[in-house]
Amino acid sequence: MNTRIRIDFVSDVSCPWCAVGLQSLEAALARLGEQVTAEVHFQPFELNPKMPAEGQDISEHLIEKYGLTPEQYQQNTEAIRVRGEEVGFTFSIDKRSRIYNTFDAHRLLHWAGLEGRQLALKLALFKAYFTDGEDPSSHEILASVAEKSGLNAIRAREILSSDEYAKEVRERERYYLELGINAVPSVIINERQLIRGAQPADVFEQALRKVAVAQ
Q1: What domain range is 197 assigned to?
Q2: Angle (CA) 70 71 73, round 5°
Q3: Cis peptide preceding 185, ω within 30 of 0
């Protein structure tokens, strides 16, 4: 029996644990195979909504934001790199030196959802930022990544040069904040069950199996 399940993946493009969590979720869904048909929706969350256009040095930002010592920052960075390696995702620490505003990336993801290419764009954005060290606030980079994801680059540039989908993204951000989601990734199954954090694939698989049996 095949069970249809809705998954809302609340995340930010600049969140390394979101990249790890998505890899784990994808692995869990692969294990379930034809038992489950998952409809995955990527929902917007900005870790740094007030980040200026030029961005900020990432070590400076994280040390300021979380009160880390330089040693703790290095330890956290290495932990993320190792966890990424475990789930098959490459964090190129040497290529990523700044953190950027991601609102325009979320606008493109909203559009990609309407075009049926949201997963492809989400994966490509994670790779562009974390693996290739590219700027996810750059309109040229975003248009290029959109094109690589099977979307129309000209249409992407039209969206980016306007405020199209800004209202929709803001509304979705407010909705999840009002639900009490203040950290990402947050994975919501069938709009009822919440799984917080970049959990291992086993955790996602177990939760999805329980939901499938209950339906």
Answers
A1: 3-214
A2: 65
A3: yes
CATH number at residue 49: 3.40.30.10
Predicted local distance difference test score (pLDDT) of residue 44: 98
Neighbouring residues of 30: CB distance < 8 A, sequence distance ≥ 6: none
**Is the confidence at residue 1, as pLDDT, over 90?**
no
Q: Report the residue count for the chain.
A: 215
**pLDDT of the residue at 61:** 94
Q: Count of domains in the chain?
A: 1
The Cα angle at residue 183 between residues 195 and 84, in degrees rounded to 5: 75
* Measured CA distances, 170 to 44, 103, 185 (Å): 8, 9, 18
Nearest-angstrom CA–CA distance, 86 and 150: 28
Structure letter (DSSP) for residue 197: S
As a whole number, mean pLDDT of residues 7-33 equals: 97
